[in-house]
Amino acid sequence: MQATRIRIGTRGSPLALAQAHEVRARLMAAHDLPESAIEITVIKTTGDRVLDRPLSEAGGKGLFTKEIEEALLSNEVDLGVHSMKDMQTVLPEGLIIGAVLPREDPRDAFISLQHADFSSLPLNAVVGTSSLRRKAQALHTRPDLRVVEFRGNVQTRLRKLAEGVAEATFLAVAGLKRLGMEDRITAPVATEHMLPAVAQGVIALEVREGDEATAALIAPLNDPQTALAASAERAFLARMEGSCRTPIAGHAVINSGEMFFRGQILSVDGKMSYEVSRMGSPNDAVDLGLDAADEILSKADPAILVRTNV
User: Assuming Cys at both sites, which of 77, 135, 184, 287 could form a disulfide with 9, CB separation 3.0 to 4.6 Å?
Assistant: First the structure.
């Protein structure tokens, strides 16, 4: 393929940059391009600027993608690289997900300088997290815990832990692996004990609809199994109308030609939790996610099903 300048838009956090560099490396390998052919443009998003309050109070999903999507639509960049779990289920008009990379480990990581794993936390221990999902799941299992707000990038949260702001925290295993910081994981948490966020561990490549040149460029990077799993999870999330104000989890895996999906919704305080599972053909991924959501919607307490999107 003839070398052309490809402009990647990304957030500027160390993890976001690691993901953008991974995409650049894959593009270079797929098309025998020099590094100079792929430009990485750092774009500061609303989520990066809002540091004085929880994300759930700042506007829900899209906080880490909006400005990158605006840059795409105004033709300032050709390709947006996102952690897919940050993306809205309904994309802005004119944008599509062109490809997803192979999924990294989707589990959450328990991190503590004092305790071996989640079950080792003492009574009334202080846990730091900015995720309503992790907070609700932790409190559902251990209502005695005290959960404090933990905003910032991976490095900031690890520093807060070292400073004693909390005794433990949770981070995505995928992010730590991509940063070369897997050694900071005290213990991975099995998905049976803490169901991940929808699309956790998935890097999504967003492009303009109709931009056939960029679509063709990124097509070799797409991982079909990851795309199918993510489509089931995002269908579940879309039907549940989940946002950063709604503790929702969902995870799909494909084994031996079958897709297995699990979904969960919780109250913020963790007192209520509803789970569902489905098994079927990967070709029916979207229907599996939608059907699972419909089951939860039929059973869950209306108090935690109030629409919270903004």
Answer: 77
- Read off the pTM: 0.92
Parallel, antiparallel, or unpaired for β 79-83 and 95-100?
A: unpaired
- Are residues 39 and 125 both part of a single domain? no
- How many domains are contained in the chain? 3
Q: Answer whether 42's CB lies under 8 Å from 11's CB.
A: yes
* DSSP count for the chain of H helices, then E strands: 9, 13
What interhelical angle do 14-31 and 154-162 show, nearest 10? 140
User: What's the sign of the alpha-carbon dihedral 72, 196, 304, 143?
Assistant: negative
Q: Is the dihedral of CA 4, 12, 70, 21 positive or negative?
A: positive
User: Is 194 domain-assigned?
Assistant: no
Q: Which domain holds residue 259?
A: 236-304
Do residues 208 and 86 share a domain?
yes
Nearest-CA neighbor of 164 among 205, 128, 202? Answer: 128
Predicted local confidence at residue 60, as pLDDT: 59
284 is annotated as an active-site residue: no
Tell me the pLDDT tens digit for each residue of 281-292. 999 999 999 999
Residue 156 lies in a domain: yes
Cβ proximity of 10 and 68 under 8 Å: yes
- Please give the average per-residue pLDDT across 232-249, as a whole number: 87
Do 129 and 64 have their domain in common? Answer: no
Strand segments, DSSP code E, in the chain are 6-10, 38-42, 79-83, 95-100, 108-111, 126-128, 146-148, 168-172, 187-189, 203-208, 248-255, 258-266, 273-280
> How much is the pLDDT for 25?
98
Residues 183 and 250 in one domain: no
> Any bridge partners for residue 90, and if so which?
none
**Residue tagged active-site, from 48, 52, 86, 291:** 86
Whether residues 90 and 150 share a domain: the answer is no
